[in-house]
Amino acid sequence: MDFSHILNSKKLTLSVVLSVFLSLFACKSFAIQSENETVKEKNAKEEVFNPTTAILEHIGDSHYWHVGGELSFPLPVIIFTDGGLETFSAAEFHHGEAAYQGKYHTYKLVEDKIRVVDANGAVDKEASHHIYDFSITKNVVALWIAGILLLVIFFAVAGGYKKRTGKAPKGLQSFIEPIILFVRDEIARPNIGYRYQKYMPILLTIFFFIWMNNLLGLIPIFPGGANVTGNIMLTFMLSFVVMLIVNFSANKYYWKHIFMPDVPLWLYPIMIPVELIGVISKPFALMIRLYANISAGHIIVLSLISLIFIFKSLWTSVVSVPFVVFMDVLELLVAFLQAFIFTMLTALFIGTAVEEHHH
Amino acid sequence: MEELFDGLLNDHLGFVVWSAVAFLILVILLGKFAWKPIMSAINERERSIEDALLKAEAAKEEMARLTNENESLLKQARAERDLILKEARHMKDQIIAEAKEAAHAEGARMIEKATIEINSQKAIAIADVKNQVANLSIDIAEKLLRKQFENQREQDQLVADLLKEVKVN
What we know:
Structural class of chain A: mainly alpha
Mean pLDDT of chain B: 88
Radius of gyration of chain A: 26 Å
Shape of chain B: rod-shaped
Strand order of the largest sheet of chain A: 4-3-8
Helix content of chain A: 55-70%
Oligomer: heterodimer
Number of domains of chain A: 3
Low-confidence stretches of chain B: none
Helix content of chain B: over 70%
Function (chain A): Key component of the proton channel; it plays a direct role in the translocation of protons across the membrane.
InterPro entries (chain A): ATP_synth_F0_asu, ATP_synth_F0_asu_bact/mt, F0_ATP_A_sf
Radius of gyration of chain B: 67 Å
Low-confidence stretches of chain A: 26-42
Mean pLDDT of chain A: 84
Number of helices of chain B: 3
Order of helices and strands of chain A: HHHHEEEEEEEHEHHHHHHH
Subcellular location (chain A): Cell membrane; Membrane
Number of domains of chain B: 1
Keywords (chain A): ATP synthesis, Cell membrane, CF(0), Hydrogen ion transport, Ion transport, Membrane, Transmembrane, Transmembrane helix, Transport
Distance between the termini of chain A: 41 Å
Organism (chain A): Mucilaginibacter agri
């Protein structure tokens, strides 16, 4: 999409943007000069702001839900160890500063990941490989919130259909119906064909699940703020589900195309591996696409906000906040677009799997 | 590389399982209680709208057909009425003509009858008059003769005359 006309119309050329940034550098150096002594003292005590860790912390999963300032909710920790199940509150870690003596091991948070530590407080790598973290993390809670929202919204919509049987939709129902029809008429029907009806529930669930999580991810405060669809584990789960659906609904033509393609026999050693890779690579591309798009959006927004802390000047917000607003609006579009693309490609893969060939 | 994947499964398997469980529950619950009624309601409504449109189209056609029929019926009725009127007029004329003819005939017959009657009456009257005239003439002649033959000389005279006449002949 071309947004250059916005910049042109406001005479906001690149040089203006650059000059603002340069002036901020000047501000910074001035500030450093004037408060030379105090800054040096502070720097010695305070950690230097590291945008990479800050951003990765924000887009990553956590055992705490940070609400703002000093306020954060510790979430329950559930670990399968070689000894057995272990449950306690993440509050026991005191934000990663303290180790927790459990029933079977002593645990500590290292970069928000649970590790087994020995008596000296050093990470025991070997023991850590035998524990599985099934904690209710920030992403799990965000997932539940999105799920509950979806259930509330669509049960209400379904109720609307029951209440106004055969009548025109009203309220929330009339907002949702065009989207459902969009999924049916633009995604399912053209890609799958006349058998689309069977796949409507899974396509609708995938679409609204991704969209809702994308939108909640854009909200910086509770109950949003988690980066669920920008988490490769979630996109892996979704694309794995898609792979299962596609391959289990595939007909004989699909398998014939993979194992007995219409090529000379001597090409089979090349063709069959290529086709088999294709079975995996299609959902793999789905996984990477959604993960990368959503994560990239979050990283850009967080980078723009980080500029304020890098320059240590409130005036940076004059530049970065409008950019963040612009990016957020763009992300609003991307949230819908990625849900649409994921669902459409799912429908396309199902369509190729159930397609009837008439050679 | 090993560093990158170190603990990947240990740290993230939980989230994959949790998200899969959450997604599965969503698919089942939404599929059963949201998508099924929503899709069936939408399909039902679309079908009913299509039905209604088709019915409206059919009703329109039916209406047109009825209008056509009505018009043809009206036309037919009008033609029939015209025919009946024509026939009636024709019959009226015929009746009038017949009546006129009958009247003429009757009149002629009556006139004829009257003429005959008049003629017979006239004949009777004439006969009567003839009788009366005859009687009267006889009476007169009698009276005249009586008068003439009152004296003898005249009688003789007459006989003489008559005899004379016979002689001449």
